[in-house]
Write a structure and sequence with these properties.
mainly alpha, 373 residues, two-stranded antiparallel sheet, 13 helices, 4 strands
Amino acid sequence: MKIFLKFTLLASMVLGLPLLGVFLSGSPVKPYLTFPPKSGNVHHPTFSWIAFIFYSVLIAGILTPFVVRALKESGRKRNERQTRTFPWWGWAGLIGGFLFWLLAWTRFPWYKPFQLHTFTPLWLSYIVVMNGLSYRRSGRCLMLDRPMFFIVLFPVSAAFWWFFEYLNRFVENWSYVQVPMNGWSYFWRATVPFSTVLAAVLSAKEWIGGMAWVSDGFREWVRIEFPRPSAWACVTLGAAGLGLLGIGVWPNYLFSLLWVSPLVILLSIQVLFSEENIFSGIPRGDWRVVVSSCAAALFCGWFWEMWNYWSLAKWTYHIPFVHRFQIFEMPILGYAGYLPFGLECALIGDLLGRALNRKRSINRTLRKDGDPR
């Protein structure tokens, strides 16, 4: 029941508040409800050095302590032994990844009917390789140890990313090129690659989280406690709601809240329900989940942007004020958006894992009690 209430509240705020903002700004709502989405509702301002410097200082100020800590810990000598060899299926994923990378970046005439569909097999290969790397280190990996969770990640991921596609209608920070926008066929063409997002980030998170600089370096670090967490949760929930409302009114100034507000909403709801969350370790100085989640999304982001660059079906960016110094298609400051996105992926993964564990626990109880259901 709780999980239903959480996602009902989240969906209501994410879907409704930006539309309300558009309505309050006096703009027509109908263009934001068309499907497939059409761009042109937002006119982006040109580059601003003031905005670029402001965001650069803000991002650097947040990241510097983490980078210094990571460099310090990675410089320590540790005896890290791999428990197993790289599995055969990991090699298959690696070979498949190189093959589909080649097909994505070339234009062989015989492959033309499939040229628009290289994203999914490329990322499935990536997911397999990430699991292979985790298995090589510890003999465990997400794909083999939690198969039901791993499989369910794919449909959940598709729904998860469609929320961001919806929010992007209000800020138009990215758009797709060479992607047929033909009614509901577009929905199915897009849903399949969207389904790989969570498995990619969470598989990378498991691998990165097992690295010594994360597992040892951020196990005991800075302790931060918030008194009266429920009061803080109410304040941040309200602020996140206002942020979603605001992107419908001032999309060029509040575009970054597309990545931050959904995260804050879910975390605030968890705190109000007195539940453990991905930030629960911070009062104890345990930053491992936070660091590994952010690092995993940034790591995946590098490959997303690189493989996108020479693909036929691709996306391009339109970031207001800071669209300069691009690495592949992404402006350099845009990579900061992967950090809160990684936390959102970890949060959704955590909620999904708890839901599945609760269902298994209920089923075991019913079987023990002799209930035929």
